[in-house]
Amino acid sequence: MYETVPLYLFSMAVLLILMISILRDKASLTKDRKLFLAMMFMNFMLLLFDYIQIRVNGLSGSFFLIVNHLSSILIYLSGMLLTMSWYFYVDYYIHKDGQRLKKYWLLIILPFIFNAVLALLSPAFGFYFKITNANIYERGSLFLVNAFFMYYYLIIAFKELIQYRHTIRRQSFIPMLLFVLPPSIGGILQVVSFGLLLIWPMSTLSCLMVYVFVQMERASIDFLTGLFNKREFESYMANLEKSHLQLGKLAGYVIDLNRFKQINDTYGHDIGDEALKSIAHVIKSSFRSNDFVTRFGGDEFAVILFIEHEQDLLRINQRLVDQLKAFNEQTPFPFQLEFSFGSDVYRSGLDQSVEQFMRRLDEMMYIQKQETYAKEKHNGRNLH
Fold first, then answer.
1. Which residues contact residue 250 at a Cβ distance below 8 angstroms, ignoring those fewer than 6 apart?
2. Backbone angles phi, psi at 285, to 5 degrees
3. 178, 209 in Cβ contact below 8 A?
């Protein structure tokens, strides 16, 4: 077992660096990042408890016997917390709803409670493990039950990823889906070959893999709305130019939130931010999961998509209007949200480039906005 010590120390160092990196960026410490941080912390503690157990296993003396028992219990408890944290992270990453799991709390908490009881009773009854008089750790008769409980959370997280795969960004779906692979391989090898300690270092590899891809995603995502940011928009536009528009019928939208400055001035920037997040959700829900939706300015949004028929735009336009109407019927704000937009398909006779196409859409949006404001002025309407 001692040959695994360098691997354990290396894994702990990697996790420590990742956790410090996340904690330093306190401004973007969102709930999903907190859940991911909790998962890495549990992985770190598992490595630490396992390392302690390796060091004390076989040492004589009542102190080392107590430490061996205690570290073994903590390993079985922390392993469940690690996989449960992963499930919480996946669920929140997909649904962005911190209250959703309250409906299923019994299905989530019961396996952990049952596992905790068996772990705590193991020193007396040898369920998961037993420590001999010579202070040697041995597997208990129900050792595989703990493995089942741990993989229970990994399996339901895997199932949820598959079920909601169309709502997850493609560049993040595969690494999140493969998260279970390294610890599963390590766990199988560890079950088959007693003394080969790989599961927690392999879990570290999974954490590192997800961290790298999520960080890459964050570089392209607008922090406030969760849509693609201006940097990714410009990159996407450049790729469209290189493709020479051989990908089908290109269509686009430029969308602008009406009276955003007035919202900020009247209700404050916090409400303004909430309005932007709400309008971003309305826009995102009006398009397909593979359509490119971006926030490229303060209250400016753009959508790039490919359609089969030009008439499809009429249907999408109506869906945008209907989604906004549905939101305003249950709005949490003391005012109605409205937007102006310009939409069309790319026309080679009018548009010499994708950039020129987007400028034309922006002009169409601006004309609609001016017409809206003119009507409101005529009717004496203000923000309410």
1. 240, 304, 305, 306, 345, 346, 354, 357
2. -75, -10
3. yes
What is the secondary structure of 224-284 as a DSSP string?
TTSSB-HHHHHHHHHHHHHHTTTTSEEEEEEEEETTHHHHHHHH-HHHHHHHHHHHHHHHH
Instruction: List Cβ<8 Å contacts ≥24 apart for 259-264.
Output: 259/338, 259/383, 260/298, 260/299, 262/383, 263/335, 263/383
pLDDT tens digits, 114-156:
999 999 999 999 999 999 999 999 989 998 898 888 889 989 9
Half-sphere exposure for 243 (CA within 13 Å, toward CB)? 13
Structure tokens at 145: 């039950």
Residue 115 contacts residue 78 (beta carbons within 8 Å): no
3-state helix, strand, coil in the chain (%, to 5): 70, 10, 20
pLDDT tens profile 78-95:
999 999 999 998 888 887
**Do 223 and 32 meet the contact criterion of CB atoms below 8 Å apart?**
no
pLDDT tens track for 293-352:
999 888 999 999 988 888 899 999 999 999 999 999 998 999 999 999 999 998 877 887
Q: For residues 153-165, b (16+ Cβ closer than 10 Å) or e, as one string?
A: bbebbbebbeeee
Give the SS3 label for residue 142.
coil
> For 277, phi and psi rounded to 5 degrees?
-65, -40
What is the percent of the chain where pLDDT is above 70?
90
Q: Report the phi/psi class of residue 83: left, alpha or beta, with left for phi > 0 and alpha for psi in -120 to 50.
A: alpha
Q: How many CA atoms lie within 13 A of 142 on its CB side?
A: 17
User: Amino acid letter at 53?
Assistant: Q
Among 189, 226, 193, which residue's Cα sits nearest to residue 31? 226
Distance between CA 104 and CA 114 in Å, rounded?
17
The dihedral through the CA atoms of 37, 43, 47, 52 has a sign that is: positive
Cα 367 versus chain centre, distance: 38
Longest dimension (CA), the chain: 91
Tokens for 210, please give them: 């997800």
**Residue 16 to residues 22, 45, 144, 200, 208: CA-CA distances in angstroms?**
10, 11, 30, 14, 11
